[in-house]
Here is the input.
Amino acid sequence: MAAKVYSDKDANFRDIKGKTLAVLGFGSQGHAHALNLKESGLKVIIGLYKGSKSRRVAKQNGFEVYDTAEAVRRADVIMVALPDTKQAKCYQEDIEPNLNKGKTLLFSHGFSIHFKTIVPPKNVDVIMVAPKGPGHIVRRQFLEGKGVPSLIAVYQNPSKKAKKVALAWAKGIGGTRAGVIQTTFKEETETDLFGEQTVLCGGASALIQAGYEVLIEAGYQPEMAYFECLHELKLIVDLMNEAGISGMRFSISETAKWGDVSVGPKIIDSSVKRRMKIALKEIQNGKFAKGWVKEYETGYKQYNKLLKSGEKHSIEKVGQRLRGMMPWMKKRRVKGAQAAY
Here is the structure.
């Protein structure tokens, strides 16, 4: 059965009108949610730790900025827009002591709730509003009068109004313009981690590097390997994004199609699916989450080592030089393993 898709007509601002909405953090998702909600006519405040560089930026955008604990005290709905590994400490120190009956905790990803690094009291609503796109796209689409498809979920609902609040928030950020689907914290968390690890990030990165290395080891020029294994991938993914896999195949040559359907399944074969199932099982049983939390608690040693190793791969140097030949392409250089924070 197809999932029900909620739109603007299913959401009403009266469910959060008059409430104070606090966004804790002003990063990718946090800034987009806060700005979109404010421009939807809702009362939004920002909660940040003392010394945060984001304080100045948030104030420049017209927000009242408070220390995290004070923002929680003042708010009716609190969005925890912090990195997964940093949420538990913030919750224990600043959020939990200031959570009163009737407040709502809101997340854009289910990690902390599903894996119980945060265990909220039973007298608060716990919901999720998760746009299926990065914050800058959420913001850009909103400014263009559009929206990013979003997910909502309800984990606790003592008020019996949690779903309405989630839909109203989704409307405030533009999600209901595109369509909102209801899920669960469990389903969102496990499928999101699986997609990141095996296909979107981990799988794609490893596939690109492996293809590049095979061509280099066979004696081909690194520039040719880069173009064929990395640069052109965006063209194919864009076609898939716009029209699905069959739509992509419609747009490529017959030779490419034949290579796709006859060779692709030999590369990504049943052995890959078996390892994907192992990865999924380790997500489901909490092994991945425990390992990731331990990695954070021990100072990101392995994490930083693996990221730095990837930065030294020859594909990065070749790509940087070739991208310099493409004036139409927006260039981004990210330094440091913790740049996303």
Remarks:
- The longest strand covers residues 125-131.
- The radius of gyration is 22 Å.
- The first helix runs from residue 28 to 39.
